[in-house]
Design goal:
681 residues, Heat Shock Protein 90, Rossmann fold, 3 domains, six-stranded antiparallel β-sheet, five-stranded mixed β-sheet, 21% strand, membrane
């Protein structure tokens, strides 16, 4: 039966609760006043700053007109023959100007720039115009006159600004401009969404507003108002007002204070409750104290382990990324020289080895790329390429690579198909090859006698190709207790110091994840000392594009006479690319850093630049920025072993036309070079 609290035990907590409630309400009221004062101060600061910007802009535009007057006066009217050109420059540089016109001494409009849209004003006699007395007074004072917001004879409204011109000791006329500050004002306040702005002339005419200002609905203390004298002679002043753009401008701030109020009330209640429970259960306080200390120790330990795990994960990611970059750089030279050898005369007996080297190096490149995606697989950020390929031909290529390894072990690899399939599909050939390669290597590793039989079958279902591949070996098999965990990370059939086969235990895990991401299915059955069988099912969209047609077309393009600059600090990379370009009939020069590249481009007429990203003295990105300062037309293609999207985006943002990741194949150059090069006649 629970114990009922005594009155004595309740008095102190209730007293504490009452005091806390009083403090909370006092602080809440102070917070409301502070919020209001801060907001008024923010309005005043913002209004003062924006008003200065507005009126500085007006002064600057009026000064541009007065400068034109000074040029005419200083040359005693000789500069007047450049009137239209100078007026055009003013209009082009100052969006506030609608037109510039010349009024002669009798106040008749003689010239208007631009003439289109203002023809009606030419020849207009302004002696009967309401602003004539004002204009005449400024002529006598030789000061610049600014009219109120005026309706124009040719349509629309604007401020008319007159700058009287004197030379040869006599008044010659005035340079007059029609000004509308809406466009430049809009640029000044483009980021000012939570405030509204209202600007009026001396007559109270609103000539600019922003965000629907409602002065009659907002209290005056929340409206910042200031004036600016635009015409001292006439005492003309413009009024600038800034206010909140929404009527509920304090609602969001009050909402936060209500949250604090609720939190304060809750905190008061909880504090009083804690005091009560503390007094009620102080006999058990030691036990709770000990438990709390243990919990703190556990949290500290967990945080330490979490930091250790995050550091290990970051180190792993950096290691994989760096190693991949380092592997791709020499691989660029290997693949490049293979491409060169393929195009040279070589003994027929070596052609097959060269072909196997070509296939193997490209498979190595695809494997390196897939290693980079291990982290992406686990974080759900994997991306897929869209290659056009034949699944059967790709399977045959993989078998050719591993057939020699099998023969060296005294094993066979047989491929059985239900027919000669020629279907081309669209998908990620790298990930498809990674799946097949991982399973095949696993089978070869654990097979000592006999061999591997691969069954391939494909069926067209609607517009997709359904592929079924069975890879069956005569190896050691998988124990039943490990069959369910074969696709887990770091899981191996053999374990301990006596295991005979090496491996990381990641191959089948990566395979399973890739199949899962491709919406496929993979199963395994096995018997110890008899063998293991993997069943793989995948679906790919069918391609209706014939790539061979495009290749032939590209070969017919003559690139002789074109001149290219190769910028790379790696001598081997320069040799490979230079030789490849020679086979296409393209002459090339080289530079080893960005500084040399900039000077070479200034002194020579190149049609294209291959720009390495990472170089000493000046990198490729900085060099591209320098080139774009004086040459916007030359094609620049970035080169790097960095395959991340961030690196590609950065290269294109500084002005590169394209970005090739190393290694670069002959076929890729042949397909893309015609986009940047042309034959010199």
């Amino acid at each position: 039966m629970p114990l009922k609290p005594s009155k004595r035990e309740l008095i102190f907590p209730l007293a504490v609760f009452s005091v806390f409630i009083a403090i909370v309400f006092v602080l809440w009221n102070n917070s409301l006043d502070t919020q209001k004062a801060n907001y008024i101060r923010e309005i005043e600061n913002t209004g003062s700053l924006r008003a200065k910007e507005f009126f500085s802009l007006v002064k600057y535009n009026i000064k541009s007109l007065e400068n034109l007057r000074q040029r005419i006066e200083m040359t005693n009217g000789s500069y007047f023959e450049y009137w239209e050109k100078d007026a055009g420059l003013i209009l082009e540089q100052n969006p506030s100007f609608r037109f510039v016109e010349w009024l002669d001494s009798s106040m008749v409009i003689q010239k208007v720039t631009p003439l289109d849209g203002n023809r009606a004003a030419v020849g207009l006699d302004l002696t009967q115009h309401p602003r004539y007395p004002e204009w005449k007074k400024h002529v006598l004072d030789s000061s610049t006159n600014i009219s109120p917001w005026t309706k124009l004879h040719q349509g629309g409204s604007a401020f008319l600004v007159d700058a009287p011109v004197y030379f040869d000791n006599s008044f010659k006329g005035s340079v007059t401009a029609g000004m509308d500050f809406t466009s430049p004002f809009d640029e000044l306040v483009a980021d000012l969404d939570k405030f509204a702005i209202l600007v009026k002339d001396e007559r109270g005419t609103v000539f600019y507003s922003k965000n629907n200002p409602r002065t009659s609905e907002i209290e005056k203390e929340f409206i910042f108002t200031t004036t600016f004298e635009v015409d001292a002679l006439d005492g003309q002043k413009w009024t600038f007002s800034l206010m909140p753009s929404h009527l509920d401008f304090l609602a969001e701030r009050k909402e936060s204070t209500y949250i604090y109020l609720a939190f304060g009330l809750l905190l008061s209640f909880l504090t009083s409750s804690l005091i009560y429970f503390y007094r009620y259960s102080r006999k058990k306080n030691k036990y709770l104290n000990d438990a709390n200390l243990k919990l703190q120790d556990l949290n500290t330990s967990l945080k330490r382990e979490q930091l250790r795990a995050e550091k290990a994960s970051k180190s792993k990611t950096e290691f994989i990324s760096n190693m991949s970059h380092e592997i791709r750089t020499p691989l660029n030279a290997i693949i490049g020289f293979i491409e060169v050898l393929k195009l040279s005369e070589i003994q027929n007996s070596l052609q097959e080895y060269l072909s196997l080297m070509d296939i193997s190096s490209k498979k190595l490149l695809l494997l390196v790329n897939d290693i980079l995606e291990i982290d992406k697989i686990e974080s759900g950020k994997t991306t897929f390429r869209t290659d056009t390929f034949s699944p059967l031909e790709e399977l045959k290529n993989i078998i050719r690579i591993y057939k020699r390894t099998a023969e060296e072990k005294g094993l066979y690899i047989d491929l059985e198909t239900g027919g000669e399939y020629q279907t081309e599909t669209i998908g990620d050939i790298g990930k498809y090859g990674q799946i097949i390669t991982n399973i095949l290597r696993n089978s070869l590793k654990f097979t000592e006698k006999g061999g591997i039989t691969i069954l391939y079958e494909e069926n067209i279902i609607d517009d997709a190709l359904s592929i079924n591949i069975t890879i069956k070996d005569t190896g050691i098999g998988i124990p039943n207790d490990k069959l369910k965990t074969i696709f887990d990370r770091f899981t191996q059939v053999e374990a301990g110091k006596a295991k005979r086969h090496e491996g990381s235990g990641l191959g089948l895990y990566i395979t399973y994840k890739l199949v899962e991401l491709l919406d496929g299915k993979i199963d395994v059955t096995s018997q110890e000392n008899i063998g293991t069988e993997f069943q793989l099912s995948l679906n790919f969209p069918i391609s209706d594009i014939n790539d061979t047609t495009n290749s032939v077309g590209q070969e017919l393009i003559d690139l002789s006479g074109c001149k290219v600059l190769i910028v790379d600090d790696n001598r081997v990379n320069v040799m490979v690319l230079k030789k490849t370009l020679e086979n296409l009939g393209v002459h090339s020069d080289s530079a080893c850093n960005g500084i040399e590249a900039v000077e070479a481009i200034k002194q020579n007429d190149y049609h294209l630049v291959f720009m390495d990203i990472h170089m000493p003295k000046m990198d490729g990105l900085s060099a591209t920025k320098e080139v774009r300062k004086f040459n916007q037309n030359i094609g620049i293609i970035g080169l790097s072993a960095d395959v991340t999207k961030e690196a590609i985006d950065e290269a294109k943002n500084v002005g590169m036309n394209d970005y090739f990741t190393k290694p670069i194949s002959f076929d890729k150059l042949r397909r893309h070079l015609p986009n940047y090069l042309f034959k010199i006649s």
